[in-house]
Specification:
Layout: E1 4-10, H1 14-26, E2 31-38, E3 49-50, E4 60-64, E5 68-74, H2 81-93, E6 102-106, E7 110-112, H3 116-122, E8 127-131, H4 143-154, E9 167-175, H5 180-196, H6 215-225, E10 230-233, E11 247-249, H7 261-266, H8 273-280, H9 291-308
Parallel strand pairs: 1-2, 1-6, 2-5, 8-10
Antiparallel strand pairs: 3-4, 4-5, 6-9, 7-11, 8-9
Helix pairs in contact: 2-5, 5-6
């Protein structure tokens, strides 16, 4: 079996799951998507069917287009979903996706922009990771990295590589050969909880000088001490800066499916690349919105761009 895709969502983020799935389908992905969720399923998933054979209690499966099985997996955890990512990935790879060659986690506010085969090739070089735009320049001598050495030592590991950029946790692609990376990620979070009072129920804390202040710190510390190879791309790979062609990560709020583009443009904020990309994939094969709604939203984006030619925040 080739690689599987997974994501985690609750509430209105189901619209992002639809956009992600549509983009995967458009760019050639065929296979299984595992969507862990809390709460209730959206209306567009009403045709999903109970799937007791898959081995995850309460699973419902929806067939998407030609060759995609979208599995909705109810998740019971007190963890914030941003922190729960590696636990979910490992549970899948050691359980219902045990035949998969690899696993790709995407946040539900990401769409992909390139052929799926690129992702499959990418993870053969090492764990696929993307640089953040915030703290992008983060040398080995950075005080936070020096502080993280304590967590690495407490996990019984040593620094295996010098990194110069902070990594965004919205995407992580792992070959089965490099599953050690995911296990290390879990260990690092467990150490932060045990020794540094990190609360896994929250995504981040206000004190950015804390030794472990966000879900992304766990991934970054793991990249420093894992024995698995990694393969990094810059912030352009998530459209944080111009020039990207890999994926688009709408990591700001409000999300593209909630934003009022014309009102925002009148306030000096033009549509971002990520927001535009979501609406490229909002129609099919999962029709989250009516054709008229999508047409109206695309017109509003165009009009907001026009306003931005004359009025934009510096």
């Amino acid at each position: 079996m080739s690689s599987v895709v997974c994501t985690l969502f609750e509430g209105h983020y189901h619209k992002g799951v639809a956009g992600l799935t549509n983009s995967l389908h458009y760019h050639g992905f065929r296979g299984e998507i595992f969507a862990g969720y809390r709460g209730t399923l959206p209306d567009w998933a009403s045709l999903s069917k109970d799937n007791p054979t898959i081995g995850w209690n309460g699973t419902k499966t929806l067939t998407i287009g030609e060759g995609i099985q979208l599995h909705f997996l109810p998740v019971e955890t007190h963890f914030h979903f941003s922190v729960y990512k590696p636990y979910f990935m490992l549970a899948l790879m050691e359980g219902i996706a045990k035949e998969a060659n690899g696993i790709m986690y995407f946040d539900p506010d990401i769409v992909i922009k390139c052929r799926w085969s690129f992702f499959e090739k990418w993870i053969t070089f090492g764990v696929g990771l993307v640089h953040e735009i915030v703290n992008h320049d983060m040398a080995p001598s950075h005080p936070m990295r020096q502080m993280w050495n304590e967590i690495i030592e407490q996990s019984g590991r040593k620094v295996t590589r010098n990194l110069y950029s902070y990594i965004n946790a919205g995407f992580c692609g792992v070959s089965r050969l490099h599953l050690e990376f995911v296990k290390t990620w879990i260990d690092i979070i467990d150490v932060a909880v045990k020794y540094h009072k990190f609360d896994p129920r929250v995504m981040d804390i206000d004190d950015k000088t804390s030794i472990f202040c966000s879900d992304q710190d766990g991934l970054n510390i793991t990249a420093m001490c894992s024995g698995s190879p990694i393969s990094e791309m810059g912030p352009h790979a998530m459209d944080f800066i111009y020039g990207g062609s890999t994926m688009s990560h709408a990591n700001k709020s409000p999300k593209p499916w909630k934003k009022k583009f014309i009102l925002s443009a009148l306030d000096g904020v033009v549509p971002s690349m990520q927001e535009k990309e979501f609406w490229v994939y909002a129609s099919s094969p999962i029709p989250v919105y009516s054709k008229s709604k999508i047409k109206s939203k695309r017109i509003s984006i165009a009009f907001a761009n026009f306003i931005g030619r004359f009025y934009k925040r510096s």
